[in-house]
Model the fold of this input.
Amino acid sequence: MLSDKEKKQLKSARTDKELKKIFKTIASKKPDEFFPTQELRNLGYIRKHCECCSAYFWTTRKDRNVCGDPACSGGFQVAGKPLTHKLSYIGVWNKFVEILEPRGYKPIKRYPCVARWNPTSEFTIASISAFQPYVISGEVEPPAKKLIIPQFCLRFNDIENVGITGSHNTGFQMLGQHFFGTPEEWNQGQLFMDIHDFISIGVGLSKEEITIHEDSWAGGGSFGCSLEFFSRGVELFNQVYTMFEQTPDGPRELSLKVLDMGLGQERVAWFSQGTPNIYEATFPYVLSKLRELTEINLDFDLYNKFSKYSAYLNIDEVDDMDAAWERVAKDLEISVKELRGKIMPMTAIYSIADHARSLLFAINDGKLPSNVGGGYNLRVIFRRAISFIDKFNWDINIADVCKWHAEELKELFPEVSEHLDEIREILNVEKDKYYKTKRKASKILEKLLSEGDISTATLIEIYDSKGINPEMVKEAAKKLGRTIKIPDNFYSLVVERHEKVEQIHATEKEFELDLNGVPETESLYYYDYTNTSNNAKVLKIIDNMVILDRSVAYPTSGGQLHDVGTINGQKFDNVFKQGSHIVHVLSEKPSFKEGDTVKIEVDKEWRTQLSQHHTATHIVNAAARHILGDHINQAGAKKTLKRSHLDITHFAKVPYDKLKEIEKEANEIVNQAIDLKLSFMPRSDAEQKYGMTIYQGGAVPGKNIRLVEVPGVDVEACGGTHLNNTSETGRIKITKSQKIQDGIVRLTFTAGNATKELEQEETLILNQLESLFNISRAKIVGRVAELLNKWKNINKALQTGKVNKNDMSLDSNNTFEGDILTELAQILNTKKDDIPLKVNKLFKEWKEAKTKMQDVENLLNESYVEELINSAFSFENSKMVLKSFENLSQTDLKNLSVKILQKSEKLVTLFINKTEKGINLMGMIGKNLLEEINFDMGKFVQEIVSNYGGKGGGKKDYGQGFIENKDLSVEDLIKSIKEKLDIK
Done:
């Protein structure tokens, strides 16, 4: 099919875009070799060249000279022109099955729109995405060679178009017609006829109204030609024939050819019914409920006319949106203001309906709104919908709209009705976050607007970091008489800023070894964790790194720490996997040679503890899902000897009572003594049997995947070491719950011997606290809380000299029945391990403060203060209190000065304090004296201490300094000060 010259041209392509362009030119020159031209001609189509865009297209009309793209044919011509076969939204899928199932296509259920199985994409963006990357690469068998699927998809690159153009969605249904077969099984003509019959016979669209464009497609190293079906200015679907792959040596024919036909269910429903736009055809029930609530004034005559030109408002194709609105308004013979006034409320309703449906599917399938990754896209559309509700002051709850969608779709997708209460709770939390942000926004915006114009970059930044949407900015600016220009593609710019963020806990591989030609290592750790030794042949030695032909040693992966052990008695302390090779890192160079037979032994206690923690991770995950809801999925995990943690998708902190429920259920699973099933299964069989929730640890490569099943509890695709029975897990203890990022909560826990060791440590801590306070264990929490409170009180009292006598003793008898150390860690804001240190420190400081309190009481005693004031001598038309002390703190000196100046603000204090380290000097001037005397205390103190090699300074009303001279007498210093002040 491809000449050497054409292969050379294709080989030169550096990007998919270049590859597509080159191949399209090649295919256009030889259409009979790449397109089903025989079938097209048999149907009466003739090939033409569009006089508007120059594309090649096929039509049955000899007088047609434009291709049918809305830009070439004058926009949409759908409204008010229903087909004879009027299909409801769900009716489109039913008709699809009716036409294609008898032709050998197997209907299958949709895949989740959250693509946990796919390492290349966070969301399912097309029907073919359900089979990426492993099916289309030929690595994994498809569910059927010929299949059809009603795939709900999510895309967030057209957010601003939703509600405006009449043909855009963030969530949409792509009906997939797919074939996966060998070149011998490939029948392009029949595949084309199958879809042509659907649109012409099934939907009832006459051939005279169809134009079929020639195009090409390239992506992921594959490419081929495609046919795009248009009618009345609307692209209905695209049939891609993936025939070639791009290799370093140039293109070659695929051994597995793939048909990728994605048909917009919404578009066909719209087309069939002749509604003004896609939304009216897709969710009429939801729209009727929204109209009841909003009571907006509908002008369907205007909207029918507007729908023809709405394609001209596509943000992706318009440079000046204001000019585009002017153009549409002119064509409709109406002012822009009146047009926007009537269209925008309807746009808002359509957007709310669309965004709610996307949120329904995404949350149901396991993704939460957040400020990271794909969850950020959900937050963007939720807040866009809320901003419309606020703008028009509508009483609409997004969770209610989700419920209406679930009701409307129950026949096709009953699963989205199963978690509506959870979805409502999640959206209510998200709504609260939005309004908290909105309340904080006014002060932030007031400051920003006072500083000048707000740039697009700033708009994006404050939306991203503070959640302040551009509508809030515009509203705040309007109140100040300012105009803010918001980019038409604002939300697209925001989404572009957020790239996919994946949380990876496995240790990074530190080595990249040359293992070409070395046979792969057979892994022996999959089925029985108690199998901890084997004999093996040494395949390769590189420094102190050893590769064997078979090994029981587990390499670091999936968040689980590697095994340790010995090879022929020599220790290895690290194991990692490179490709299909297991590499053992010895502590020193091996004494054995390549080709030798050796014995490898894994540390049994190490292996058992890690296996307990890994199985416990699956159990805790299942328990959390049961207690908190089906939105719980694993977002990361780490298993070490001392403890493990599991990161779960959750929208709020987990309260203590729920944490104890999860722990209780996890231990009930342990006590049920359930035998685990560890097996390998073809990927497609596993997915069909258990669903996509098996990918809790993320995407798993391979045609066959290993399944770890706790029957009746949990099934996951996992390569780690696991126990044979849940009872071997030992007691699970959840020690902590913390929110580590928006939408992700970390549960830290122990299992087995790690729990015993932890409890021994905790018992030791509790015994220490019992001994310290001489009380029973149940009273520890109350006593520590009392200590913390009285420690604070008595330290405050040291500044005033007035103490509450109750703070001088500890006598709380309050009891506590929960987890004592967890509660103490929260009270003291410290780690559990640090509790004894923190409590002992508080206790010691409280006792010292009590002792010091007597001195302070004397120091700040009213009669003593009066005595000092009476001893003051004349100075600069005022009076100065000059006094020396020993071993007082700076705080004590300052508190005494403040007390004196509170008695009379027309005084000056100057105190000298002799300590073991040297002499402190501190002076203060009363506020009422500052304007009356020409004296700078800070400069004076600095001059005095510098005479003795010290340092000091301050402000006019306050100065302090230090002289590091232990031999200097206080009397000499006082004499020097008096001389400086000219005091006799």
Remarks:
- The longest strand covers residues 250-264.
- Confidence is low (pLDDT under 50) at residues 499-511.
- Residues 306 and 332 are 7 Å apart (CA to CA).
- The longest helix spans residues 420-450.
